[in-house]
Amino acid sequence: MTTVAFLGLGIMGRPMAVNLVSAGFAVVGYSRRPESADPVVRAGGRAATSIADAVAQADVVALMLPDGPDVEAVLTGEQGVFDSVRPGTLIVDFSSISPATSRELARRAAERGLRMLDAPVSGGEAGAIEGTLSIMIGGAEEDVERLRPLFEAVGATVQRVGDHGAGQSVKAANQLIVAGAIQLVAEAIKLLEALDVDLDAALRVINGGLAGSKVLDRKAAAMLKRDFTPGFRAELHHKDLGIVTAAARDASLPLPLGNAVAQLMAALVAQGRGSLDHGALLAVLDDLTAARGTEAANGAEARRRHEGITK
Amino acid sequence: MTTVAFLGLGIMGRPMAVNLVSAGFAVVGYSRRPESADPVVRAGGRAATSIADAVAQADVVALMLPDGPDVEAVLTGEQGVFDSVRPGTLIVDFSSISPATSRELARRAAERGLRMLDAPVSGGEAGAIEGTLSIMIGGAEEDVERLRPLFEAVGATVQRVGDHGAGQSVKAANQLIVAGAIQLVAEAIKLLEALDVDLDAALRVINGGLAGSKVLDRKAAAMLKRDFTPGFRAELHHKDLGIVTAAARDASLPLPLGNAVAQLMAALVAQGRGSLDHGALLAVLDDLTAARGTEAANGAEARRRHEGITK
Amino acid sequence: MTTVAFLGLGIMGRPMAVNLVSAGFAVVGYSRRPESADPVVRAGGRAATSIADAVAQADVVALMLPDGPDVEAVLTGEQGVFDSVRPGTLIVDFSSISPATSRELARRAAERGLRMLDAPVSGGEAGAIEGTLSIMIGGAEEDVERLRPLFEAVGATVQRVGDHGAGQSVKAANQLIVAGAIQLVAEAIKLLEALDVDLDAALRVINGGLAGSKVLDRKAAAMLKRDFTPGFRAELHHKDLGIVTAAARDASLPLPLGNAVAQLMAALVAQGRGSLDHGALLAVLDDLTAARGTEAANGAEARRRHEGITK
Amino acid sequence: MTTVAFLGLGIMGRPMAVNLVSAGFAVVGYSRRPESADPVVRAGGRAATSIADAVAQADVVALMLPDGPDVEAVLTGEQGVFDSVRPGTLIVDFSSISPATSRELARRAAERGLRMLDAPVSGGEAGAIEGTLSIMIGGAEEDVERLRPLFEAVGATVQRVGDHGAGQSVKAANQLIVAGAIQLVAEAIKLLEALDVDLDAALRVINGGLAGSKVLDRKAAAMLKRDFTPGFRAELHHKDLGIVTAAARDASLPLPLGNAVAQLMAALVAQGRGSLDHGALLAVLDDLTAARGTEAANGAEARRRHEGITK
């Protein structure tokens, strides 16, 4: 029986760890907040008291953390994974971080005789719960094959896309498309609301044609109701778009829509709405068209100042 | 047996008319280019020699024309549809035109005792051939119901979305999303090409997650090969985006991504590439990153002029 | 002594008419709001009771109206200018309207034996008061020369730029640059406010280099204080940007910055801030970065839901 | 007599060093390319054989280098400035680098008892030759005062804008405005070329009004002729816009126009045109509207495939 240490039991990590238990893996979960491990324990896993405790007996160490510095700290910090694992342990990082950081960590792992895969996922909380994530993997083919049963326990699409860092590169492209697709749906909703149409019927028929997408399937209805409960937090998507725009800049590559939506996601974060779902891009458009009390009054005054031949 | 006059037998109209014949309708086809009616005749329909000839005995008149002025000319011109149909004839306009023109034509039809529906479609040439179009319909509910068998002969999703013009409004929102989705895929392809990944695998796994879409299903593979055979011509999509941006402007509605992609589609048309598939948005990005011969040389010279302490 | 009928006595027209009086012209002013003519009368002009009354004895008819439909109504409406002037009267339209409308009105004037110039201005209320406007003129060279004393009474830069409509085309390009320049200053202010610099000193030194501009000279200080008293109303600039984007669309010309700022100006109008000064583009950026009460709370709740290994 | 070591004798540094000689400073110039020091020697300065040689007897060390890593290498590298100067030497960095790097280098200088100012400039090659640069300075007020005669020998506007790094922050805002202003002029030129106007007259009258700017004064004429000889190289402006977008991202600040023009500048660099003048932004627009040979043919073929009732 393969023993998996699972580090990071947030919205995504927790259901993934539970699915691994269900698929027959021996799972040792660790989170900085001990109560986060409860669902894993209830499912039949074990809660570790430290990173070192979690990984000591593991065959595989899985990570699902918010950002690159978190992954770096957990792997290379004192009493971290690199210090505590058995030689030959395979590390699989499900986090979404920059391709450059991912490559660098794989290099440092190799120096210690450890093998590593970057395996960011797409599909959101629903995909994590249902075990239907899309997993985009960078690293050695043989390591991907060795972990295929594990990947298939949490994902429906398991795809190696290249060497170390390639998974992260593909995730960046994925997040570019997702952010843009949400913004397009937001713009379409605003346009439909401004015109006189049956909104539910409209989104249904649009989704039936070439405009059809998973974003329309899964997010449009909540957006229409301005329900921005995450789901996937805007501040994480903001971080991902930072990876996208930095990669594009390194390649002197213009991304007209990618950069435009990155601006709008930055606005969401600047407004203190970073913990809302990324569908809250619609709220930025709502702001841009909402009447402003004070200034409107100010405007009325200004208008009185203005006298002309017409109106 | 219902007799349908079908006016406009282009890439979309021809297969739609053929599908109506197959579904048991008596179809009389008319096109300015007589040979365009051949497939309809081979399927069992009849070719008319004029608009008047086509519509004289029709129960239903269907139109599938490039733009508003075409529809207006065919309906209201001398010897046009309004002059030639029997009272009570139902006119269904599958063309994509502006909501305002559509409403105005419905009003003028009503003045003559004619009933009208706007019924633009999505799904492209493939959807027209397979009879799986999405049809977004504006007009009276009873007229939609009366024509439901006709709609179901050409489409898989048949949806009334409001009164006269509402079909066009929804089509505008649809075209906004489609153009944006193509541009996002183009940007993702450029990003993936700049990084070191397996492109086919990457697009497959991206399509398996929240970024999944019909545009990825149907267009990404051809775009990757720079095969821009239409499909749906950029110049028609340019026209559609003109409807989108005009509607947004009338509503003082900012559409950051919609307007950005409208600019890029305009560039395609300005470059004389308007008859390529709209997937050629990728060609604009290719241009923006392709090395320029003469100027590069010019640049080298300029560089020689520049002397500094470092590189 | 040349008699000038001046139609339209708003923020711009009023001081222009007064300057014409000061320069020795016999000025007959008309506005739909009679009190608007008071300053002209105080300066030594006459107030007319109707358009017909104003233009009946005029050698030159000058117009300064908000938009094309206003100009069209005043010229071609019943009891309008075309019906009431003496043959050979020269009409000079200072309004900013679309080049196409301008050409069409010149054509209709010519049919009646009237001569016309389009002569939109730049320089704002201050330029109108000081008589230092820039005037961009379309029409016959001899007519421009004939009116040169009149133009020099209201403007510092008087320039014929081509045939009928050319003045409007140049004004469109002018308004594109002005809107963009204001938005750039707004973005620079936000950036400087986010960093730790002495704002007044910063804007002063920026204005001393290649970034220097009239917009920095005249508008940056008020913008910094969020004083958006017009000046030039955003809703008029929104109208002008509609002319810009329509002209660009007709030419299939992408205007990446022009269209982006047109979106933001549309947002201002949608927010009911259309009667503020166009410098209020900064207020849109303020919105995009201002903390949102309710949603921030919503976000805090969402954050509580989220548990992870870090933070 | 104050001895100034001047490190970096490129397009900007060379004339600045010459102006210091003319103003009575004892100047020791150093460049990796010895011949770059020739004009300084001819003016009465001395050429050094190494950084150490240049700075050993200097009261002030001035730097004018392309980017942050260059500055870091020259200051902190082996046999670099920090290793070779006398205690108490004042270092003034005219280079444009990131505010964060600037602050960090000032901190490391202070650890060694050295004082430092960041003093990036605006005004281009012409401003450097004429000694009319705008200088935006970060650091201690007393150090700025001590160096005022030096600053006034090379610049017309000398302004302290805050503490260490503030000069760079203001330069970033400056470069945002300059890039945007050039792009706006490029868009206006394209619009005017598409319409039928006298281009020289048009730009003259535009420059007379609120749209007036130094960019119109100095760059529009060359742009109109498509003369893209630098001047200021696009690749350096691309670097500067990287500083702008990174600073904006750190502050979660959306910069709609700043980011849009950064994309277009990136395109210039990707096209191998980085060593052209930044006015070559117009060449990108030219590309976006230039007819494409092969694809146009391809398009003609596609058009033949398409048959419809109209055209």
From TrEMBL, chains A, B, C, D:
Residues 165-284 form the 3-hydroxyisobutyrate dehydrogenase-like NAD-binding domain. It comes from the Bacteria. Belongs to the HIBADH-related family. The active site is at K171. Its EC number is 1.1.1.60. Residues 3-162 form the 6-phosphogluconate dehydrogenase NADP-binding domain. GO terms for molecular function: 2-hydroxy-3-oxopropionate reductase activity; NAD binding; NADP binding. Coiled coil: none annotated. It is an enzyme of class 1 (oxidoreductase). One of its GO terms (biological process) is organic acid catabolic process. It comes from Actinomadura rayongensis. This is 2-hydroxy-3-oxopropionate reductase. Keywords: NAD, Oxidoreductase. Transmembrane segments: none annotated.
